[in-house]
Amino acid sequence: MFHETNPTLFGRPDSVLTGTRALQSTLSELRAANTCLAHNLPDAFFATRRLLSDFSTQLSGYFDVSESARHFNAIARECPSLEHRARVLERAHRLLKRSFATAGEPALRREKVCTLAFSARIDGLLEDFEEHEHAERELLQDFFNRIGEAPCHVAET
Known about the structure:
Elements: H1 2-5, H2 14-38, H3 44-66, H4 69-78, H5 83-103, H6 115-146
Helix pairs in contact: 2-3, 2-6, 3-5, 4-5, 5-6
C-alpha cells in the first residue's frame, strides 16, 4: 500500500523535516548568491559554487528519502492511470540530481568560467527544480483524489 511504502510523506520523522528545511534554506542562499553572481559582485562565484555543491548533496538525500523508486512504483501500482507521470518524474529527478552535481564543474579546456553564463545555468536549474516539485505536488494531489476510483485501486490490508 502507498502509505506503507512512503511513511515519510505523513508524520515525517525529524530527520526528514530537518533535511527538507536545510534544503529550503540552502535554496534561498543559493538564489541570493546567484543574484550576486549575476551582478558580478566580489566573491559571489566562490559562494555560489559552495552553495551549489551543498544544494546538490542535500538534493540527493532529499530525493532518496522522498522520491525513491518505491515511491513511484507504489503510485504506478495503485493508480495505473498515473504511471506515465510517475515515471516521467522519476527520470526527471535522476536528471536533476545529475545536473546539479555537475553544474559546478568547470568546463573542460576553459581557463575561466563566464560568470553570467554560470549564473544563467544555475537559474535554469533552479527553475527546473521548482517545476519538478510542482509536478510532483500535482501528481500526489491527483493520486489522492483518484484513490478508490477506476482505474485506481487501493490494496486491502
